[in-house]
Every structure is written in structure tokens, then in C-alpha cells.
């Protein structure tokens, strides 16, 4: 109380120096080490309320036009609790869809911070790179393989993922026990059947996608399907994940919103549930890079005047008869020999019979429907045919 009276007395002395003793406001402000607006405020309070007006006044404004409506604040908190991965942009978008006046992103962030609902991630200094996007749908697909599909048997399955570069529409999310050529190419062809044949496909340099950098240079089934359908198969440069940044960003969303903490009873169950997730991603989930539109709004309204080429399936189930076809049994080291030229097809095929199509320049090796490799032929002349048998008996 003594401190409060002392403050009032000082203010009263300052007011009297102006109105009674004739000192200027600037002189009084210097004497009491306050600003001139403060002296003017004391004079106004004294004129309106007398000496009681020189008590401490609350600086809180009587009206705060930027204060968020309690109902809106409650909706923000409820959305965050129901969807922990939603940020201020998504929450603001959903508020508008529900007919509420969305506050700014900064205000939403402050609301979440006050309630302890923010997760601060360490800021990384990202390398600068130029963002790019194809001008229309079906010009380019980005494809990759991601793991993290846990099953009740304790195994981890893989997913072949694909995204349309222009629309961010997910064109493929095929679950498979192992990411080998046959299931990967089966999902690839299924994507063609559902959506058509794109002009280009961009992948990394994984062995399931390409063997262009092998020794000797060869062609995988994935490469062959692209070639026979007139698709330019583009490859990323080594250690350049941002080149396929769109599919990598989808992988992050897939892990955070779908895979984390889940164990599936079977691969079929996982496929059904990921199909539902992809449908929601394509048709209901707004995308910030598309100005909060959904990917389907771009992909499904693509220009259909340019008719996509018909799908060409590789003729891998044709009868393998005639002079250009021979069979060989894989030895214990995973090697076959054709006309004195050896080719490794993997120890896992030891004892199996593989088919070899012999041309003037190549040897194409098939394990059933799967093209294992196509290598340069180093010998000439006729190739001897011989009886090939599996470990169990004649093939």
C-alpha cells in the first residue's frame, strides 16, 4: 500500500508541475524519466477522475478483435485430438468446410501450443533444389518400393508405390511378400490396366527396376515392359532422393498415417486396407501443393484427347519351342552354360530348369514367366539342345 501511495504521489506531483507550476510536459517527463504520452495520460486521468485516477490502470484492452472465438478454438482442439497429423493448414481448411470462420495459421498454431498439442521437429537445413512438375497427368509416373508392412507371422512385406507427377494421384500401391521381378511387374501391369499407359516412368536404380548398369549390361522384365509399351524409363542419379520427392513424401504420409503401429493378419488384409487408404488419399484428402484440392480433381479431369497406346503384355507364356529355345538345369553354384558361355542366375534356383531364348546377339533367360536376365551373346553358331531335368526328375 505504501508503494502504491508513493506512485500516486509522484504522479500527482507531476500533474501539479504542469497545471499549477507551468512546467512543460517535456520537462516533467525528463524529470520523472517517463515518456511524454505517459504525462498526457496522467493529466487525462486526473481531469476525469481526480486523484483516484492516478492509481495503476490495467493495460489490457477492453476489446480484442483478433481473439479467437471459443467455439472455433474448441473445434481446433477437437480436430487435432482426432487427427494428430493435421497441422494448421489442414485444420484451417477443415474449419472452412464445416462453415466456421477459420483464423490464421499462426492463431491455430498458438491455440495448439497453449494446449500442448504441438510436436516440434528439429529444423533441418535442406539443400536447395528446384521444384518441378509435369504439365499434365500421365506424362510421368514416379515409382518406388517401401517396406513397413508387418504381418502376424512376423514378416515384413513390401509395397510397390506409384504416383502421377502432375496430379499427385496414387496410381499403384501393391502389397507383395518380397519385392522381386514377378510381383513388381504384376502390379505394374495392373496399374496400366486401371489407369492407362504413361509416357514416362521414373525410378531409382534398384535391381528390380533396371540392370542397365550391370556387367554385362542386361534388361529386366520391368525394362522390357516399359520398352514394349513405348514408355521411357527414366532413372535417378545416385544419391538423389529429391528427384523422386513426390513418391518419397507419400511414403512419409503412408508411414505416419497408416503403417505405424499396425500389424496385419495377412497380405490380403493389408492390401484391402491400403486400398481404402489410397482411395481416401486420392479423393478426400486435400493436398497443400494443389491449393488444398484433392489429387483426383486433377487426374480424373486430364486431357483424354490424346489416346493412350494399348497395353502390350510381354509374350512370356508362349510355347517355347523351335530352334531359338533351349533349356538348362541350374547347377549348384547357380550357373547355366549355353554354347560354352556361362551365366549366373542365382543359387536360389539351384536344380531348377530355366528356358533360354537364343538370338544372334543375346541370351534371354526365363524362370517360368519371369525374365531373369538378357545378356550379350559372346559365341556364335548353333546351340546344342540337351535334356534338362530338375532335381525331382524330368522337367
Q: Would you summarize the structure shown here?
A:
The chain has helices at 2-19, 25-32, 36-49, 70-82, 88-97, 105-114, 181-195, 221-228, 245-259, 267-283, 295-299, and strands at residues 140-151, 156-164, 170-176, 200-203, 232-235, 263-264, 325-329, 335-338, 341-344, 353-358, 362-367, 370-376, 389-390, 393-394. It has 395 residues and is α+β, with helices and mostly antiparallel strands.
Walk me through this protein's architecture.
This protein has 395 residues and is α+β, with helices and mostly antiparallel strands. It has four domains: 2-54; 70-114; 140-299, Nucleotidyltransferase, domain 5; 325-394, no CATH class. 34% of the residues lie in helices and 19% in strands. The chain contains eleven helices and 14 strands. Strands 1, 2, 3, 4, 5 and 6 form a six-stranded mixed beta sheet that branches. The protein has a four-stranded antiparallel beta sheet with strand order 7-10-11-12, with no helix packed on it. A two-stranded antiparallel sheet has the order 8-9. β11 (362-367) and β12 form a beta hairpin. α1 (2-19) runs antiparallel to α2 (25-32), α1 (2-19) packs across α3 (36-49) and α5 crosses α6 (105-114). The longest helix has 18 residues, at 2-19. The model has no long low-confidence stretch (mean pLDDT 80).
Mean pLDDT: 80
Rg: 36 Å
Extract low-pLDDT stretches: none
What gross morphology would you assign?
rod-shaped
Query: What oligomeric arrangement do these chains adopt?
Result: single chain
Class by SSE composition: alpha+beta
Number of strand elements: 14
The name CATH uses for the topology of the largest domain is: Nucleotidyltransferase, domain 5
Beta fraction of the residues? 15-25%
Amino acid at each position: 500500500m505504501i508503494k502504491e501511495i508513493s506512485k500516486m504521489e509522484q504522479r500527482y506531483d507531476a500533474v501539479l508541475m504542469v497545471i499549477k507550476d507551468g512546467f512543460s510536459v517535456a520537462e516533467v517527463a525528463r524529470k520523472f524519466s517517463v515518456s511524454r504520452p505517459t504525462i498526457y495520460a496522467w493529466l487525462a486521468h486526473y481531469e476525469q477522475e481526480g486523484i483516484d485516477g492516478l492509481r495503476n490502470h490495467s493495460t489490457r484492452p477492453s476489446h480484442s478483435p483478433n481473439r479467437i472465438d471459443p467455439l472455433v478454438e474448441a473445434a481446433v482442439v477437437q480436430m487435432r485430438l482426432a487427427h494428430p497429423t493435421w497441422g494448421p493448414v489442414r485444420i484451417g481448411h477443415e474449419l472452412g468446410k464445416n462453415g466456421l470462420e477459420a483464423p490464421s495459421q499462426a492463431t491455430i498454431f498458438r491455440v495448439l501450443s497453449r494446449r500442448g498439442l504441438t510436436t516440434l521437429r528439429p529444423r533441418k537445413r535442406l539443400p536447395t533444389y528446384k521444384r518441378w512438375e509435369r504439365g499434365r497427368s500421365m506424362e510421368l509416373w514416379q515409382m518406388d518400393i517401401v517396406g513397413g508392412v508387418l504381418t502376424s507371422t512376423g514378416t515384413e512385406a513390401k509395397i510397390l508405390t506409384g504416383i502421377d507427377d502432375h496430379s499427385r494421384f496414387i496410381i499403384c500401391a501393391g502389397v507383395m511378400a518380397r519385392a522381386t521381378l514377378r510381383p513388381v511387374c504384376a502390379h505394374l501391369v495392373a496399374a496400366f490396366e486401371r489407369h492407362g499407359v504413361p509416357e514416362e516412368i521414373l525410378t531409382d536404380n534398384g535391381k528390380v527396376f533396371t540392370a542397365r548398369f550391370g556387367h554385362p549390361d542386361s534388361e529386366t522384365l520391368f525394362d522390357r515392359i516399359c520398352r514394349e509399351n513405348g514408355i521411357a524409363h527414366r532413372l535417378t542419379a545416385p544419391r538423389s532422393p529429391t528427384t523422386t520427392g513426390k513418391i518419397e513424401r507419400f511414403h512419409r504420409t503412408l508411414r505416419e498415417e497408416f503403417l505405424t503401429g499396425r500389424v496385419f493378419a495377412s497380405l490380403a488384409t493389408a492390401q484391402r486396407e491400403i486400398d481404402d487408404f489410397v482411395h481416401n488419399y486420392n479423393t478426400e484428402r486435400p493436398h497443400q501443393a494443389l491449393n488444398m484440392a484433392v489429387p483426383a480433381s486433377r487426374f480424373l479431369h486430364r486431357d483424354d484427347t490424346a489416346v493412350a497406346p494399348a497395353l502390350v503384355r510381354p509374350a512370356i507364356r508362349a510355347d517355347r519351342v523351335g530352334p531359338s529355345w533351349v533349356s538348362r538345369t541350374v547347377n549348384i553354384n547357380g550357373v547355366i552354360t549355353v554354347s560354352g558361355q556361362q551365366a549366373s542366375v542365382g543359387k536360389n534356383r539351384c536344380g531348377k530348369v530355366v528356358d533360354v531364348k537364343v538370338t544372334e546377339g543375346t541370351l534371354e533367360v526365363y524362370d517360368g514367366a519371369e525374365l531373369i536376365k538378357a545378356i550379350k551373346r559372346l559365341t556364335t553358331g548353333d546351340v546344342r539342345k540337351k535334356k534338362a531335368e530338375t532335381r525331382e526328375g524330368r522337367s
